[in-house]
Please model this.
Amino acid sequence: MTAPERLQPVGIVGLGLIGGSLALDFKARGHPVLGVARRSQVCEAALARQMVDQASLDLRLLKAAAVIFICTPLQVIEPTVRELVPWLAEATVVTDVGSVKAPIVQQATPLWPNFVGGHPMAGTAEQGLEAAQAGLFQGRAYVLTPTADTPATVIETVASLARSLGSRVYQCTPEAHDQAVAWISHLPVIVSASLLAACEAEPEARVHDLARQLASSGFRDTSRVGGGNPELGLLMARYNREALLQSLHTYRQQLDQLTAWIQDSDWPALEQSLRLMQQVRPTYLDD
Amino acid sequence: MTAPERLQPVGIVGLGLIGGSLALDFKARGHPVLGVARRSQVCEAALARQMVDQASLDLRLLKAAAVIFICTPLQVIEPTVRELVPWLAEATVVTDVGSVKAPIVQQATPLWPNFVGGHPMAGTAEQGLEAAQAGLFQGRAYVLTPTADTPATVIETVASLARSLGSRVYQCTPEAHDQAVAWISHLPVIVSASLLAACEAEPEARVHDLARQLASSGFRDTSRVGGGNPELGLLMARYNREALLQSLHTYRQQLDQLTAWIQDSDWPALEQSLRLMQQVRPTYLDD
Model:
């Protein structure tokens, strides 16, 4: 990348955890950063922390941006693109950071051909501008989901910005992205929430009390994402319903298979499966 | 407790993680500690680390012990009690540390009336004498599972020793213990292993690759116990088969319910359930 390209003015809509962290990193790298939020206190806080050069409640501020990151909740992405379009110069690149891609890409691409879907896989338990931090995307995956019609320059513009954050950039179809995150992000939420729901269904009070008293690290880890933010879990299920249902269908088959081995006391089969799972798990976690 | 009671000679069979850690703590508190292991290298290592006062391959060493902790794998507990019995003074208290209680208590109690089942809920990812550490039981749950016939003095002897380790001591029937640990320890293993098995069943190579590349902390936590030690998982399923099957049955009902809400796009019902799970999870983890 050449120096002038690094200095493209960057616009950010939605100054929460992801938008705020992007602002911090782009500003640190020398980009002019323009931020738009829904509440004036957020604009003021972003200016006070010097995360942005200018902030506004008005999307027209972003006329001057060469690349715009939409960092709003999933259900607000499409309306935001629609509102932005009248103010954009023809070459402006628009991307988003939503955790589901197919419905977003289907909605946004017809509105703005220079749109490419994106998903930086970074997050913390906290949300909001206060949780924003420099270096959040360092070493993390950043997935871009172009369609067959997305201009190569649009993809490369966002890819190069993502690489400048220290992210590992992946590229795939919106549908492949959605099925992959259904496996590793959305299915775990339902699997884990079902564990909590099952424990709560124990009919004997003394056993239920004892379970709560004895739960330790194994239960803590397995129940974590199921006991997490319900709004996020709900949005993922709504927006990624088809892929999640596909994953749930396969999950239930596997659960039934393991249950059948236990029912039949087929210990060699159960042992072989548990041994295989011990071997495959590190292939998911070598980053 | 009075001082002389604290100085009862303690015998330990099986000098692995749990047995070795018990030895360290009891020795530090002034008890004479006698250790029995299956391999002479382990006896030598325990003596070298000054975890025990005497060590032997021969159970007869434990004639002098007032309380004996059997810290062998589950399937060796009953044969160990059987082998010990001819050498024991009538008042000797015998306990074990197995993670499943009903079958152990059923087998051991007829062999030795002064037996009480126990389960210190402590562990690490490592195993063996090298992993033994002082203070492992501090602040952790220690469950005792007497029957209606267990002498009160036997229960109190072991409870008082467990409290001296800093453990929170609970008392319940072997059956209540087994159902409680099925919920919080054994069910999570199968739920988590099924998640790995389901992800491995993804038929499209590019989606499978992408899932492995994108997996991060949520997947790491939810898959941890399912990708753990297969021997432990197998033993838990074998010894706690009935209670685990009961938990799996309820789990599948809950999973099917959540799946049905997603299938039916019944978002208010899903949101209410996820919201409830967020509220109940801390009641399992307030220790």
